[in-house]
Structure formats: structure tokens, C-alpha cells
Amino acid sequence: MASDAFDPNRMHESALAHVSGRAEYIDDRPFLKNELFVGLVTSPHAHARIGGINTAAALKVPGVVCVLTARDLHQNHWGSIFSEQPFIADAEVRYAGEVVAVIGARTKSALSAAQKALRVSYVPLPAILSIDAAIAAQSFIGPGRSIQRGQSQGALQAAPHRLTGQLIIRGAEHFYLENQAAIAYPREDGQLEVHASTQHPTETQHLVAEALGLKQSDVVCICKRLGGGFGGKETQAAPFAVYAAAVARASGCPARLVLSKDEDMIITGKRNPFQIRYQAGFDKDGRMLALEAELFSDGGAYADLSTAIMERALLHCDNAYFIPHVTVKGQVCRTHFHPHTAFRGFGGPKGVALIESIMEEIAAALDLDALDVRRINCYSAGERAITPYGQTVDNNMLPRLFEQLEASADYRQRRHALALWNQDLNRHPRGMALTAIKFGISFTTRFLNQGNALLNIQRDGSVQVSTGAVEMGQGVHTRIAALVADSLGLPFESIRVMSTSTEKNANTSPTAASTGTDINGAAAIAACDRIKARLSSLFYQLLRRPPEHWAQKTAGLGTQPEIEVEEGGGGDKGLCIFSGGLVYPPDRRDQALPFTTLVAEAYFNRISLCDYGFTKFRHLGFNKLTGQGRAFLYYTQGVACSEVEIDRFTGAVKVLRTDILMDVGRPINAALDKGQIAGAFVQGLGWVTSEALYYDDGGRLRSHAPSTYKIPSVHDMPRQFTIELLENPDNLANIRGTKAVGEPPLMLSFSVWNALRDAIRSRRRAEGRRQEACDLPIPATAEVLLRLLKPELFASWETASHQERDTR
Amino acid sequence: MGQLRKAATVVINDVRHEIAGDEAFMMLADYLRYSCGLVGTKIVCAEGDCGACTVLRASVKGLGSEDYEVINSCIVMMAQLDGCSIITVEGLAPRGQFSPVQEAVARCHGSQCGYCTPGFVMAITACVQRSGPGLDAQSVKNYLTGNLCRCTGYAPLVEAALQVNREKQEILKTSLETRRVLKAVSKVSLVIDTEKGRFFAPATLAEAAAIKRRYPEARLISAATDLGVEMNKGKAVPNCFLSLHLIPELYRVRVTQGQVSCGARVTLAQLRRACETALPEWARNLNIFASPQIKNMATLVGNIANGSPIGDSLPFLLVSEASVIVLRGRSTREIELSALYRGYRQLSLKPDEIITTVKFKRLEARDHLRLYKVSQRRDLDIATVNAAFAFRFKATGASARVIAEARIAYGGVGPLAIRCQAAEAYLRGQSLSSEVCAKAQELIQCAIAPLSDLRGSAAYRRVLVAQLFERYCSELDGSSEFQPGAIRAASGEDSHGERCL
Question: How much is the pTM?
Fold first, then answer.
């Protein structure tokens, strides 16, 4: 039965709250009378020994309630993979921006006075401020990892063509609009209620408990919604909740910590910078024969998620392409920068950038069209559909995606037109690239792929559902509501997805890895199924009784025997159909009862209208040590074609046109999916073009606000921008045949990055220059591009001084 | 001084607020959120660079715009808004109802995480209000450059602006009563004196001069869009302000045949409207000068007095031979712009002097004025390098290509924005050939001393300086008769930013 649940134009469940300004975020919560402001004091040094902290002057500031340092915490280490990072630096600071003290004060002005009054003495130590320096010092985090298939070395040597190169990929700031924030409310008997802007309420709850020496049962973490996360609040939200909680605990007052954008950017980690050395072997048609690559990432000062991020990078070095012989190795480096962390794509972009770049370089080396090189290497069937880690690319849409977009984007004809355009040196060079993404969906750490849901049917037939999923704009609550509405046959409006809270859903995983809907939606459906089974059993038993004997009429009298239902079954007749607000047996719509009638009957017959669902992704079997096995439940796939123009005078970039075609299976909400695609693409576009993190020689981030860190603005989106979804009803691996969409499209921004490379190549060709390899870094800023276009102009000025001045 | 007020009057969502005491020095966004509980207005960057705090402001006749315009509420002090009416997102529709703009943004999927959304709703409201039914995507984008969104990629927000049901969208206007109240208060000088600081807003220029004499430490502010940022970030804590916002004659801009003169309170937005036809190149350049929110607050005089070597107006003003009129007590003097700066952000003004007016030459079509700005991101960004060129050629016959007068100015290439006099002198009387250009380039490079910073290396700046000159020459070259129209025609669809050839 058709339901309105999957209306492709349905708006975000909070859209009207958003536009009216009534959607509540952490700092929108009303202040309580005795509430304290929490502020941080951070290290100005990338690496130093703490000589001492003198809190006396800060404590003397009127209005200051407490100044907390490392020794005030019950347990002062945390980390999702390696528990090695202090919440508050103790003897040593290991990055500029590391927290050394936490202050609670009654007013903002008292807080800032205390921040200035706090005296910390440092003895600076030598700092490691680059991947190269870390490699030289053998300063690493975790063991190296690798994925291997075949004999890459031999195959490389035997290959008719080879290319080697190095890829520099720099970090990026999440730039969620809502800065990190948390409020902790002391509750009776030592309990704490923490409201945090976090993608991982469970870990936040656990870390607050550990840091303060509380039982996990004495801490509740609640999250209504996030003003953006993008991975930046997966692990790194928790310390801020800990700081607020520590002040609340020390003072007995509610405590609010809301970072400024500057503080947030200075303290929290970014996307890991990577340095990749590679060697690729291929035949005369551009067919890949072998790949060897060594990936080094900058993990920053602490492990955070960097080893898992590296793992996903290695798992995506193939992307959409079959490579018979592969050796990819990865090592996380320990430096003295903020601990880098999850960011949309989670390492995947590094692997994908590598191979998409190699495709362009192969094409250039052989004078082929890069699209032809991609298509010849694209995963197909049989042996050529098996990844280097041994998982088969099921539901492989890649050949179809390439074929359809080539046609719909008018690729060949435009390629021809571009060649003509670029012959004229008085024009701005233009380029085009069509790139792909095949992104594995699942946490590569198996145990994270579990979730639970609580479903409460209220007596008017409206429904509350709670899961571990955190709503951060991606629309996970809208999708879960749609799945529940469809399952129960109710109007979408009957379903309310509640705040995420650890007292309703415990032991949940972070809302990350694009899996929010897959895991939590499936758990919600599992809960629906259990209730539907009971209601179906009830339905068949009601049919056997005259309506005047139904409980709604007689329950209070106790004249009729109570209906008992068996757990877990509608009896031998199976589940009823739940549709259009009615419940009926398959093929007997004439017997339908309103859902609300059944709900009332269930209540009076003491049949539970609430339930709990649990889910886990089955069949996952990736062995991290051997680098082999099924890492993912399925793959989300897509392709994009972008055309760009580089200003020949300044290097400024204009994206003229982008066409995207994505396979997201059967969408639950096509409009939200397209929104995710457009947003992820533009976010990636910023990373590959304009977003430059600028650190000074002391390892201090200098671009820590939108005045200096430039995310795309409205004029930077592609001038012409189309997004289409591929029809694909055949993804059997996931709930409803849908596919996750949050991260994959970010990597389609490599179509822009490679189009820039193509434009530079075209210009060099038109100028009759030698076609050497073009290892374009990320981001390819205007300065980078102009250097590549006009190397001779830069040559004479390269000795210029490197003095600095804030030129604002 | 005659009558005095001791509290600023600000109307917020039709409710009158009397602001005395320390609240006068609060930023509007903080006041809304923490004093009024109007938390729909968000604070993200506290530096006017993201637009999440966007609200609408209208002033009274003669003292700024009577129409509601967007401003950044995070960098404007309450006292500065004396005499203004503010509408926040909560004021757009009664509780439970939605304005057509709000409906369109929701329906077009213009919100994801929702945090930037109220700011966009306000900006789109102003955009729709300020435009006719022929509104196109490009104009919408021009209006939304002051608002950042990290979730949507912007397309749905642009679409929403185009989809607004204009028949249902009411034009926001201040009520008669509000106008009456604001008009009455704005005739009377304001002095706020608290422990935290002093704020003077005299109603006449004479009073202003007297106050500045008495309190030379008083920080003269117009929009304080830069000072507001420094205050938010704890870098500056001035405690004595002098605002000229009640003085009607400072809101005047006069465009005559040969000259433009512009009072100290004239905003960049007002100036842009005044110069749209008189100085199209300058008007076009103002499109990539800050955001609508900033341009509705910030003044040209503020940009000059701020003294930053990368102030976007400076190269233009330098080639336009600008000067400022300065008032001290009852006497005035005129200072050429090039003599105004003594060093990096240092002005040759006496502590008790007030800039009341800036005057600049209105260059003609035959001066071939071109203004360029290069920044990491084109919109709402601080320039890496900016430049102004204006070459006039000898008019007759065969000597059509001989330069009669060359004006060249750059910003972002040293502690001061500069005119390149040596190159200008060399070019005078030359005809434009590649050898001549090369020699001029050499002289320009000798005149500059750029630094490396987060906006670009010194080498990049030097290359840009050369490249912009190159671009100018190639644009001149591209138009055989040196008609600006010819160059424009070749530039294609892009009316917004830098022209493409």
C-alpha cells in the first residue's frame, strides 16, 4: 500500500522550527539563576613542559567560582581507540591550544578576567611540526597497517608503463556553524545531566563518568540536535562536556561551556593531513596493473581516531577501479598539532584522491582521455569485481553510472569544445574531469555496527521513537520517522523522533560513517515489528469476539477474560497489514480495524504498546591485522563531471558546471538525499580549492575564524549544478534497499580538483611546454594554481622574506 | 549642550527598549539572546563574517535608511543603534505562523542543521523586499554573500528566494508610532555614562567637535565593524566612544560632474546606490567589497580612518585623488588622502580632529578606471592584493594610444596603500607597448614591499601586482577604441565579480 512516508519532497522534520528560529540548540537553553560560565585556558606552545600553574590571581577575580587543573579530575585520560589523551594537560602540553585549566565564573567578564589572570609557566620543548619531521624522528601513533594483493613489486617491474609521484593533502576545518557547546546540570544524589552538542552521546556520557569518578548510570547525556557536526563532534565533543561537568560537580551549579569559533578552531583537530608516495604500473591502454603506495598521515598530538581513519584511507585506494596487484601501507605520524579527527569521508577521501589522481596521470602519460582510462579500469564482474581486501563489489552500479553521466553531461562534445577553447592563450584555461566514488558503508570496527531503538505508542495512536541517532542536519530523524510511519501504516505526522538521550538508548555508537539511518532506522523497525506482532495477534483474537465484549467497553468491569498474546508472533496467521491508519489481514481489507482501536484494546488488555528494537549489520568480517575480509555491508556509488575555469591572471577558480549522478539505492527521502549530495559536494569543493589552514612557525593555527579560513560562499557553488539519482531498487543488503549518502558525495569534489589539473595541463600543452607529472596538492588554492600556470613569474621572487603581519 | 538623553532608544520587534547602563556596550546579538531571550539570532563567528546573527534594521528619515536592511548583530553595540528599529527572526510572523520567506526556505529544503537558517531567512527577506518581481539567481547570490552555510551547498537557499510567494510577503515597515518615537529621540543628544564607559552621540557637528576637544581619547566610531570584532575578541577595550549617528548633514552624498563628496555617515550601500550610474566601475567593485550586512553599516570614511593598507576603497580613492575634510573645534582643513597616512594604520590626525567628509574626483569614461581585488575567496574576504588603474590617452588621431595621464594604485603590498608615482611619471607620454609595460612593471615592483602572511606569500603578491597590471593592459588592448563598454560586452554573463575575458 502506498504510504506518504517516502514522499520525495518531504521537508526536514525540523524545517519549520529552523526557519522560525525556534529550533533549540545548546546555548539557546534558558539560563538558570545560579548558572556558571565555563571558560578554558589553553597552551600557546606546541610543545612545552608546564613549569607551574598559579591559580591564585584568577581565583581572586570577583565572580570566579573555581579553577580546575589536571589534578582535579578523577581520571585524566581518554581516547576512543587508545586512551592516551589528557582532558587537561598535566606535566606537558603537546599542541598549541591544548587545555591547561578550566574556569567557572558567574559572569562572562569575570571569566575573561580570570582567563587573563591565570599564570602558567612553560618551558618550551622542540616540536615536531610536519609529517617529514615525524618520519625522521620515527614519531608514530599505532602500528603501520597494509592491504595487499598479488605481487605488486613484480607487476610494477613488468609493467610497460610506470609513473611515480607524491601527493600532498592538507587538512580542513569542519566549520560546523554551532561551535562546541555543553551544559551540565547537577542533579540530586550526585547525578549529572549533560546536554551536549555531540555526535556520540554514549561516549560523552561514559567519559564524563570516568573523568569525574561517577557510575555511568549516574550520568545522562542528552542531545536535541547539532548545528552541524561533519565528524568534528564524533570524539572531540566529549572533552567540552567533561569540562562543563567538572565545573558543575565542583560548584554544585549548572555550568555552560560554549566555545567561540576562534577557540573551537584552535583547540579541536581537523581532517588529517596526508602525504602519499606512490608508484603505478599500467599497460598501453591505460589498464592498471599494479599500485604501490605509502600513506603517512599527520595524527596530531594524540591518537584520536587517526588509525581508523588511516584504515579507511587504505580501504579506498582502489575506489571504483580494479587493480590486480596492490600494496598500500599506512602509518599515522605523531606531531605537535591538535589531534586530528573524523571529518566526512574519514580517510576515504585520501585513498580516493590518490587513485583519481593516478587516473588523470595515466591518461596524460598515454595521451588518452581520462574518462576512457577510468572506464577501462572500472570494477566490472567476476574477478574484476573483487577488491584488494577480498570483498566483492555487489550491486555494482559503476559501469552504468559512468555510461549514463557521460551521456547526460554531454561529455564527449564538451571535451571537444574545450580543446578548441584552450587553444587561445588569451582565454582563461578551462578543464573538465569526470570522477567516481565507491564508498564502503559500515564502521570498519565491527562492534560499532549495532544500534537500538525505543518505540512508545501513545494511547491516541501517536508514536514516539528514540534511538542513538543524533540529528545534525542530515535528516536522520526525518528518515527514521518515515520508516516507522511506513511500518505502522500511519501518517508521517503521527511519528515524533525524540531527543537522543543515553537514558533511553544506551551503548549506542556515534552517528557517523554515514550509518545513522541504516543502523538506527533498522533498530526502530525491529521495535515496530515486535509491536506489530503483538497487535496482529490481538487483532485475530478480537475478530473472534463480538465487539460488545471488547475491552474498551468491558475492561473496567472485568466481565470478559483478558486477551493474552504470545511474545514474538501474530500466531500462525502471521503479521497483519498496517496501512493507512488501518490494520487488517493480508487480502481481507474488509476486516480492517483502525489502528487507534487496536491501541486502545491493547492497553485495556494489558498488552505493551512500547518496545525496544536491536539491530546489527551481519556478515561483516574484516580482519584489521591481515587487511582482508568483508569490511562493508554495501557500497554507495556515484559519479560527477565538473568543468572549471582558472583566471589566467590571478589563479582564481570558477566552477562552471557540475553534473552529479548518485546511486543511493531506494531513497527514503529523495529531497534530503539530494541535499546531502549538494552539501557534501560543496564542502569538498571548499577543501580542494579555498580552505587553507595556516600555521605559523610555532605550530599555532593562524586562520581560526571565517575572516581567515574561507569556506565556500554562495557564489562558489557551481554555476550550473544538476544532481540526479540513479534508479536502483536492488540493494538487498540494507533496510528498504536504501543506501547511505552522508559522506560519499564529498569525494565527488575531486572532479573539480582533477578538472583544475586538466586545465593546467591544457594550458601547458597550448604553450608547448613539456608535459611533466602534475601532482596537484589539496587544496589547490589560487596561489598554487598560479604557480603552476606561471612558474617563471614566481621564480625571481621566491627568496622574498617570510615575515608576517596580520593584515586585517 | 541643551537637552540630553541618558538612554539609547532601540525598538525591537515593535517593542521600545531604553538602553542605559552597561547594556549600552553590549553587542546587539548578545542583548537579543541573553537580555531578551530572543535566541533565534545565532552567534557563530562574532566577527561579521558568517551572517548567522543577521537581523533587519531601519533608521529614521535623514539618519540612514528608512527601509529595513540586513546588518550583523554580533558586532554592533546597542548604543550605536540608538534611534533604530530592529526586526529579528522572531518578529517576522506571529508564533505558530510563518512568513512567505520562511515557508519558502522550509519547502525548498533550505535548512539542514538549521543553525545558519535564521540569518538566511532575514537576508532573503531583505533581498525580496529590496527587489522587484524580476529577481534572478545572480542578484539573490549577490545578496547572500554575507551568509555562510556549511550544509546545503546554497542552491536550495537561492531557490527559496526565487520561490517566495510575493503576493503574501508583506513589505516590512516601521509603524507610524515607532517612527514618531524614533524621530523625536533622534533630535536630542545622547550621553551614556557608566562605570564601563562613556558613549557620546551629539545631535550637531558643533557639539561633536566640542566633545572631541574635551575628550580627545574618545574613539570616533561609525559602524565600528572592525572595532566590534576587536572588542569581541578581547583585543580592544575602549571605554569612550563618540558616534556621529544623530548628525543629519553627515548622511549626505553629493555627486556632481567632476566630484563626489560623501559625509562621514554615508554607508557603502548608500554610496553604491549613489554611484551606480555615475561611477559604474566603483559600484561594481563594491559588489565584492564586504557583505550586504557590512555595507549597510560601514562607511567610506570608516574604511579610510581604519587605515588598513588593504582597505578595499583605498586604491580607488588614491587614483581618484581623494581628500578628507577634517574638523577641529570650529576650523576645518583638507588633507589629501596620500598625506593622511603616516605608517601602518597610523593617521596624521590630531587627537581632537574629526573627519567629516571625504571628497574624490569623479573619473570619466576616458580615464578607463579599473578596480581589481584578489582574495582567497571572491566574496566577503579580505584582499590579498587590490589595485586601481586609470589611464587617459591623448585624444587625437594617430596619437590615440599615447598615455596622457596614468594613475596606478595598489593595496596589500606594504604598510600603506600606495600610488606608483615613478611608474606613472614614466608612462606619461608613452604609447602602450609591451616594452613600455615591462619597464613600468619594473618601476612598480620597486615601489612595493609585500609580506608573506596567511593570505598569500610575498612572491604571490608580487606576481599578482604584475598580473593585475597585465590584466589592465590586456583589457585596454582588447577594446580597440578604449571604450569600457566594449570590454564589458566581452565579459559574458558574469555581472558579479571580476570580469572574465
Answer: 0.96
